[in-house]
Amino acid sequence: MKHQALQMHDYHVWANERTLNHVKELPIEIVEQPVQSVFSTIQDVFVHIHVFDHVWLGVMQQKDFSEIIGVMERLKKELPSKSIDEMQQLYREVAGMYRSFFKAQSDLDGMIPCEHPQWGKKELRLSEMVHHVVNHGTYHRGNITAMLRQMGHAGVPTDYAQFLFELER
């Protein structure tokens, strides 16, 4: 049986893919259309999710904090100009990086040191970190849905239960 953290990450990848595919079906201008919301544009939300998928993978890999910040800063500069197709490919690449990382782990419930600049230091289970990544993505996909509705477009359902039902197909 698949570890719950792996299934949750599969859900995260599935939900990101559904959201990106949905946005690709809408007029291209909506991606960069300014919206009065938590983020200025839908593109900004896609960038944010992707950047922090990288950040938390770096934390899980126990990379040096300065290296993680460097990756974050580089991505924040590079990603805003990417098309949705390019973003989708980058999302797929980071999902592959996570899968490779997970395959190399002997214990997804093992403790890993985590340091956050505002929250301090703590040891967390690797599976808890995965849950955080998934929860973070879910929260921000909700932002995208709200922004789409503000612009007169429907969102796309990305419920975990729907994912579970689609696993059976």
Walk me through what this model shows.
The protein is mainly alpha-helical and 169 residues long. The protein has a single domain (4-23, 31-152), classed as dinb family like domain (Four Helix Bundle (Hemerythrin (Met), subunit A), Up-down Bundle), CATH 1.20.120.450. It is built from 6 helices and 2 strands. It has helices spanning 4-24, 42-60, 65-78, 84-103, 126-150, 160-167; strands spanning 111-116, 120-125. Helix 1 packs antiparallel against helix 4 (84-103) and helix 1 runs parallel beside helix 5 (126-150).
Q: Brief overview, please?
A:
The chain has 169 residues and is mostly helical.
Question: Do you know the CATH architecture?
Answer: Up-down Bundle
Main sheet attributes: strand count, strand direction, barrel closure = 2 strands, antiparallel
The N- to C-terminal Cα distance equals: 18 Å
Number of domains: 1
Strand content: 5-15%
CATH topology: Four Helix Bundle (Hemerythrin (Met), subunit A)
Question: Low-confidence parts lasting 5 or more residues at pLDDT below 50?
Answer: none
Number of strands: 2
> Whole-number radius of gyration?
16 Å
Give the topology string: H per helix, E per strand: HHHHEEHH
Q: Can you tell me the CATH class?
A: Mainly Alpha
CATH superfamily: dinb family like domain
Q: What percentage of residues falls in helices of 4 or more residues?
A: 55-70%
Kindly list the characteristics that best describe this protein.
single chain; 169 residues; mainly alpha; Four Helix Bundle (Hemerythrin (Met), subunit A); 6 helices; 63% helix
